[in-house]
Structures
1.
Amino acid sequence: MERLILKVTTKIFFAPIILFALYVQFHGDYGPGGGFQAGVIFAVAFILHAFCFGLEETKKVLPQKALIVAMVIGVLFYAGTGVATMLLGGNFLGYDQIDPESTHHAGQHYGILLVEWGVGVTVASTMLTIFYHFAGREPDIDQEDW
Amino acid sequence: MNEFDVELSPILLLDLSLLTMLLLVAIAMLRSRHLFAVVMLSGIYSLLSAAFFVSLDAVDVAFTEAAVGAGVSTVLMLAGMLLTARREKPFEARRVPIARLAVFATGAALIYATIDMPTFGDPNAPANAHVGQAYVEQTPDDIAVPNIVTAVLASYRGFDTLGEVLVVFTAGLAVILLLGVGSVRGGREVSDAQEDKT
């Protein structure tokens, strides 16, 4: 088997990278991080997979069609949160309206989590889309070609 | 105003060495004609600036720089490099006096402008005094989120961040439109060789 060590290492690292992305995603309120960074880290896990197993294998795991849908869903999720707060009677993205009874601004926490989720989904799928399109145009190149 | 008689603390030495390395990497990038080396050096540049941001206590910015700048940008540049040549075209270096004059004049103006900048961490600096101070004071009451950066990004400036997400989305859309292979609904794939014939 070609490049055995790289393949085994990638398999070991794949899940922890995604776990770290989710940690960064949901821990943005309390520490550094948020949707942008989490989305990029999530995309990096799949880029690592593509580097090691080839783009075609990665596309079987996460097809391009799904990424386009995810890109749109992310943006609509963010904007939809804003529209939802308007429908609840507040301003666009006025998160306090989500839980107006709360004494410790629970609505703000919910709102931030929701929009950050939209950011993360959009960023991850967009980064992967760009990578797929750049890397998918040229057949695999020789080691000496670098 | 400017206090140049700062004692030589370890932090200052760290900052100076990071900035020196940034400068050296930038010069190496300018001088190299090998595109692979330039891409790798730009990744190193991002990582060094991330370290510098940590030393400036801007962990959120440092995190973004490390993930986006050093991580994904380097990969995308490598992937983009596959579509083009591996080396920059050799060219005749011509000396244009007016270009050199313009560069030095701009550089001198920028250095002159830094003299008026507030010192690092100055509580009276405009960035810390008005809206920045309001955010720091109001966040515990308004948002009740420990990370003020997130509070500003997702709540106070939520509309701006929606715009940023749309920018990312548009970038992805543009790449799909320019480099995409067929439509989402199963369009025809056209290879470059075929296109050249027609």
Note: The longest helix of chain B spans residues 59-82.
2.
Amino acid sequence: MTHTLDITKEHCPMTFVKTKLKLAQIAEGDILEVLLTDGEPLNNVPRSATEQGFKVLDISKVEGNIHKVTIQK
Amino acid sequence: MFDFTEEELTRYSRHILLKDVGVEGQEKIREAKVLVVGAGGLGAPVAMYLAAAGIGTIGIVDGDVVDLSNLQRQIIHTTPDVGKPKVESAKETMNAINPHVKVVTHKDFLWASNALDIIKDYDFVIDGTDNFPVKFLINDACVMAGKPFSHGGILRFEGQTFTYVPGHACYRCMFKTPPPPNAVPTCSQAGVLGAIAGMLGTIQAAEALKYITGVGELLTDKLLTFNAKTMDFRKINVKRRENCPLCGEHPTVTQLIDYEQGTCDLASHKK
């Protein structure tokens, strides 16, 4: 199952806090698509997710400064 | 599941960011019930850090009122609190730090007659007391009830602590009986560097949080001691003893005991 999370309005460290909350709420193996802005969120969220044992499947540009990070739990 | 509000997510963000705690660990912290015995030098930092951490229910036991001489180390109380019951003053500070925490006050000392009844509602117990009779009472009650607890003691520039979990060494495995009354001075007689209380109390708070979240290795079967004059820390391996009078194979301590207090302790408790 695929879930989405928009953290484009959040700032560090709440970007990853919100990502972790959503990841805790979904089932093992599910996919989470996270919409975030470039700069700090784009640098930190995929790196932290990988460090904490999640699998970052893809990072792609959506439009403007917004990117989509696809994470598997 | 994991229904944290926006305010709670921000408040606990530094816990949630930790790989070993996360949302799941914070949920365990929120569901936990911890009893702090003594709202003094050790109980003050323990209760403040546990409240800040978001422990759902914190019980606090103390029959004393705040005295001016407490303020040098008992940082949960402030100058306007002098004369107020310690449990009330402690509750005010804890709820000022974190209004989400339910603080249950027990305005009494722990005795053989009430110990089991008070500890029964809690998952983890903190020994923040200043005298041997109550330290043995907490140990005995927790071993009998199968409750984990953190032992803590401070004097002058030194501190010691260990964590009891059922199946591991208890206080009586290390020290069979309390020393005779007045044989060992208490803080009120010998003095204590105030910051030592913070050093030891925060270790106890960390042990409680580690137990609740299941993170890391506890101070079980280890006695941690330190001397702040040299800042030497030692971890001494201890073993559960088969001939322990309490948790051994043939226990001789089968009911709770109110050991005799030193005269100075009694005087301060009767105030």
Note: The first helix of chain A runs from residue 14 to 25.
3.
Amino acid sequence: MTPVVHRVVGRRRETDDVVTIQLEPVSGTRLEFRPGQFNMLSAFGIGEAAISLSGAPRDPGPLRHTVRDVGPVSHALCQSDVGDLVGVRGPFGSDWRIGDRSEDGRDRDTVVVAGGIGLAPLRGAVQELVAASRENGGRVFVLVGARDPSQIIFNEDLQAWADDGAYVDLTVDRASAQWSGRVGLVTTLLGRAPFDPARTRALICGPEIMMRFTARALVDMGVDQRAILVSLERNMECGLGWCGHCQLGPFLLCRDGPVVAYAGVVSDLLAERER
Amino acid sequence: MSLHDRSGLGPNLDVEDLVVIRPDQLNDLIARLGDLGYETKGPTIGDGAIVPGAVRGTSDLPVGARDAQSPGRYRLEYSDDGHLFEWAVGARSWKAEFFAPRERQWRAVIVDGTLRFTEPTKSARPLAIIGARPCEVAAISVLDEVLMNGACPDTGYDARREGLFVVVAECTAPGGTCFCASMGSGPSAGPGFDLALLELDDADGHRFVVRVGTARGAEVMAGVSSTSATDADVAARAQALDRSINRMHRHLQTEGLAALLARSMESPRWDQIAERCLSCGNCTLVCPTCFCSDFRDTTDVSGAVERTRTWSSCFDLDHSYLHGGPVRASTSSRYRQWMSHKLSTWWDQFDTSGCVGCGRCITWCPVGIDITEEAAAIRGDDEAARAVHVEEEAR
């Protein structure tokens, strides 16, 4: 339960309310993690919040966390400056299982669908997948939806992934005067992307309603339900399975999630109100 | 005297042996546990109810007390018969002994530009509970699964739970809201006790049939004078337990219950319950297995930071807070969460029921909502809906 003290060594504003902070332990080595997992970050004296890791295990250097300013703790984290101390406990939870091979051992297409800041917990997975695709030929499709163009995070990464051979497509709910791209829900990007549904796995993170409709659309296209992973969120407080806040039906999401397969009970949970 | 000292006054005993002691010898048993280094606690009378407290002899126990319980009602009554265990359960369960209602996790002070943490030291003195109920022992096993036997054990719970000695008082007087027989957790004691007492008072006098549950229990009993249980004692014990089951008028049909609730998330019954439910959280407070807690950080003027864990409830609006608001805003969704967790998803999470049938949530609900009645109503609605479905299929 005691956090490990880290120092903020980098800070970057992504949008008007999203900041990426980079953390190094005050002593000791960087913790190991897998893409999709989260840490509990403490703003000392204010509290603790679950924040996903937005870095890739393959990248050396500080831990990256991309935080949206929505409450007292995330506000303090977003306001933290280089040199400030932040507490870290973790990593917790399940990951995107990017090392899993398809059942027949063939390289698969991976469709990554993100809504808004949902790209943060997917960033590490995409970094790993794009790097791996150079060796194994598995294709990577990154489909991003945002409320408006100013809410798109990681623009430079999106460009770099496209340069490295990934299929990258964007859409916004509301265009701005400068936006010449697509307008519409992220599900409208699915039909354009030339992946092979029969050998596709999907990684989805965004608002619940977006994940639900994206997963349903993918199933309708012929993607195996079990190959669709979603990242779910509830009020993680302890990360250890003690506090009960992160329950969603049968899951304690800090322990059994956040990444779960869409198959079975999850599709019902996403369809039921106030679960 | 150590726990392994076998030189005692009584016979050498084995697990499952039955012996008989008189009230004076129960007094000796409590004293012996104290001598062995245990902090001895048990049911006591306080604030007009039966509550956990220090017990150094039988006179500290609820002598002559009876509890009249019904939905939303609890009263103590007294008799001059000197019986010690002729009541069911009070509001406060034993969970507070292991899972403190309020507990500091750590304190941090700034030293040399970084933070230095201290964690509270854990108490070393083991606890002996005299007179826990079978359902309460079952509840401790349930909490063990949640807080001790998972991948990340709660070390504070572990430290207090370590070395616990349990003398269970089997139930001869179930309360008006008890349904342990349905849950398989009473009225006779299941696993998890060291010694089990059953109180008898008949032509053979006021006495306790003691069942030995563990080798440790046998060692402790060996230091207390006792007599072997006669056939009459054994028969009287069995009769008392049978009578206890027959006197329990509440039942919860557990067959298929987890799946039933899992498919009843959209039942109209939840909204009907919410018309009565005050979402006060009393049921979670008195429940011997509810384990939800909040972690809060505070600062003081010295700049030190403390993290404190306190009991919380799934009926609190901020229990399900998620960036900007609660997920479960309606009372019906919060009652649904509580009940379906107890009886359904607890199985998914911890491979056990979250309910032991103690009836506290019924007694201490200010409007008398009865979990057994609600489960039966949901089952009735489900059966009716399925019958209609079958009829439609047949057409």
Note: Chain B has 13 helices and 16 strands.
4.
Amino acid sequence: MRKLLAAILAIMMLLSMTSFAMAEEPLTVTVFRGDPGDQPTEDNKIYKMIEEEFGVKFEIEFLAGDLDETLGTKFAGEDYPDLFDAGNSAEKAIAAGALIDLLPYITEEGTPNLYNHIKDLLPQLVNENGELFIIPNYGINYNAQIQNACNGPAFFLQKQVLEWAGYPQIKTLNEYFDVIEKFLAANPTNENGAAYEGFAILCEDWRHFCLINPVQHLMGRPNDGEVIINVNSGNWETETFIDKPYAKDYYAKLNEMFKKGLINPDTFVMTYDQYIAKLSAGTVLGMFDQTWDFGTATQALETAKMYKNTYIALPLVYDESYGHGVIEEHYLNGAVPNKDRGFGISVNCEYPEKMIQLFEGLLSDKWQKILQWGIEGEDYYVENGRMLMTKEQYNNRSDATWKMANTAITIWESAPKKQGTQDDGNAWAHSDQGENYFALMSDYDKAFLTAYGYKKPADFFNAPIELAPYGEAWQIDKSPIQDDYDKYLLIQDQWLPKVIMSADQAELDANWDAFVAEITPYAEVYTEFMQAEVLKLVEQATK
Amino acid sequence: MTVLNRKKRKPQDRDIVFPIVNGLILCVLMFVTLFPVINTVAISFNDGIDAVRGGIGLWPRVFSVEAYKSLLSDKLTYNAFGISVARTVITTVLNLFFTSMLAFALSRKEYIFRKFITLAVVLTMYVNAGLIPNFLLIHRTLKLSKTFWVYIIPTMFSCFNMIVIRTYIIGLPEALAESARIDGANDLRIFWQIIFPLCTPVLATVALFVAVGSWNQWFDTQLYCGSKKYLHTLQYLLKMKLATSMNTTNMANTSVDALANAGATKSTPVTVRCAITVVSALPILLVYPFLQRYFVTGMVLGGVKG
Amino acid sequence: MMNGAVQKSVIPPPSTKKSIWKKLWDQKYLMLMSIPVLLYVMLFNYYPLWGWRYAFQNLDLTTIKKGADWIGLGNFQWLFNEKLFWLGFRNTLAMSLINLVFGTTASILLAILLNEVRSRAFKRTVQTVTYLPHFLSMVIVVGMAQNMFITDGPINRMLMSIGLIDSPVWWLGEGKYFWWLVGIINVWKEVGWNSIIYISTMTSIDPTLYEAAAIDGAGRFQRILNVTLPGIKATFVVLLIMNIGHLMEAGFEIQYLLGNKQVYDFSQTLDVFVLEFGIQNNKYGRAIAAGMFKSVVGIILLFGANFVAKKMDEETLL
């Protein structure tokens, strides 16, 4: 016991000594990230280079628990780090007055990289008072935007269904469910005797977008969250869609499929883990989702070489029989600057100029290559002017342990960065580089694309449209009407599954009417708020 | 006569049936509790990607130690383990000391302030100022943030445990303390030399409660020591590892990264979660038998009981 | 001993007339032993209660820095007018009660069964095994439970094969089952852990009592009834009173994990409500008001339970 205590005391003394010793030479910058993450190793090669060039070290705090709970204490105690990335609640850090306005520090002469980075988007990025607290961490493209595949929302279908049907073009909701139905009739179970499930709908918590978002896309709009905005009239009329008759069409279609047994009632109560497990087992034929949301399942299927069970993204719309005319799909949108997400500099920071100079330096071409590709010769090689990676080098960049020692991922993720294409034609992101992307693709996938005469999965989609001046409406901060907004979502989550599970047409109509009646007051508040916000954003952007 | 006979025979009849039934019930219970535990261990030793598919029983389907590798390859894990052991040991010792001392004082019926202090202390279990006021006290008023002591000082007393010990002391035969008092012993000596040793079973129980509570804490690290990586506790680190592994699969809007992740990840939240359970519970399980000795079989009064 | 008793009865007479100061002086060691903790709870538990003033202020993001305004009972008014608050109140109470009744019964039952085991090795094994689930995280436990209770899961298949039901029951999607599922999971997870306290209390029972009962010809059940149960009664009553005071704490993790929007009317507890409409909305004043409400209800329940125990001549907490 005494020995143990002595050992503990010794450890503690050692700790306090090391922390004193570290406070000496380079400037220690404190960092908060509103996301979980791994601490970099002591001898991380990129951080070493940053320390040599900029004279700064980082003391990083990540988040393991609930973001808002932790932020609440930080705001109350005014306990801010130098660099403050409050993750998905960053606008709260702005509202709480934790961050400084960056614009006074950004000039054409002093910080040309940053200046050029934001100058075109500036009207959209600043707030009503013309202040800019956070430079977006993602979504600012240089030269051409690269789109190899749909990474966002779409209807997904197992490739084997299309293969079985002879590679038809599936463009509409009805075609989609037809082919699933026919496939299911011919193949009720897989080779191992496990039953196929026609269509899955994930409803868990914030992932309920799988349940409530599809209608806007079926009507031919990109992802604006819960509203449809008329971009053609010039008045930007904004309306919620979930309570409209054209939304009922979709849920009635799902009800039809439910009655035919294509949809399992457990789909409305399953957790994300169960959803991923089902997808990974290869027994779910289709779903509406966003590509990044089921990456684990894709990985599991590929590892098991079940390529035919992996999914292809399809941009579906209502066909003419629904009475909305001919609808053109616009699933892919222009690059969206990730407004109010990334590092801000806190009011407690004593050397804001230095931090701006750090961002400025890291945004240079030289440092962007180091941060995104690594060191030439070690992490990638150049052949005929193209930046390339061996399979090992490529895989390293997503290996968590390797990243802790060989990348400055934490700083890179939250700092301003270049995306799109470099001046010499190489991609800024190593994973966007065509050669790297296609090197990873399986033979099955190559054959699948060839059967359609396509070069990349994104060819199933129309080219991205120009981003509307308000951005994408899901980014709008709803905190001023949070109480009503929460209830607006809750009512959808509670009622839509009931509508889908209705026993007959009469019950469906009754459920739908009850749903509309209950949601209308909240939908009105929400519509009014969003309309005002959209107009405000449009006005700012066109100033 | 018949009545007497029945009285004498019945217990013997039961003594054959009862132990068997009892044993059976307990065996079923063991199976029901053990299955999920073994299942957790099995998943933790399974390949991450394969485990996502579910359906693993009592043995790993594709054996792999990747989940453990990703936890144990980090040098900070060992430092965090040391901090966790230190905070647990120190907290347990101090907490036991203060808690049992007050329990003894409040077990004395003649103590004038007994009622008042009991009330004052018991109410603390039900009044809670909330997260922010508590944070401000520790962070701003006491300035304990970013020090090791933030793990110790706010957890030196536990009312629930005090009541448990007090109830136990009240249940002890009064005569023991009484005779000592007559021999001229003061309250301090009675407590230390007579009551304290008699309380071993309950103290072992309470020590277990305190130790497990302290060991499992991670939120205080988040609040007060998040930026000091050498003050991170094991639970905090493990919680972070789990959160990180879950996060890599759902990075919204980072079109660049989602696809970059395909291919190299060998552990998944499913396996990491189970490996974390094993790593964090194992030290407690190893210490457990030493404490269990005292409260399962009892040593002072219950030692001779069959 | 006899001597002692005599002496004791001799000494008191002057002391009963003793001044309060003399009495205090006699109890100086008791005071010495209680002062540290008293100061400690004053600082760590009562001093932060100053923060309760926020319950009467409109504390949120924008006011947190420059200071919030007093709004009287505004936060409480909002809470009490909110349907979801009362729904949370009902669900909290229901799940706590189920948990308290079944959790306590099961852990006492387990302690008694273990106490009757003669083989020490078996006893320790069972005890160790049953407390293991306490260390499984709720995520893991709930995940397993969900796989058991899905429509084509083992529970439905078993019930159908023995003919108790004709078609699968939608356990996870119908609100009426939710409270009981939470109860089952909680009892399963904590029964071993919660029985520890009763097991350790049973060690304090004087073994001669069992011998005396055996000599009197008491059967095993009579011994349990007349010796074991009275032996743990004080602990049981005290824990019961404490737990009744905690009825407002139904937790939130298990409801959060096991619940879904289909059963929301039965799964949402006060803590979930506070998280969703207080913390995540940054209405800190509201969250603190709800916390205060919980404290007040808890204290009322506590005093009520303590009062009843006193009336029944049982061991009391206060």
Note: Chain B touches chain A through 65 residues (CB under 8 Å).
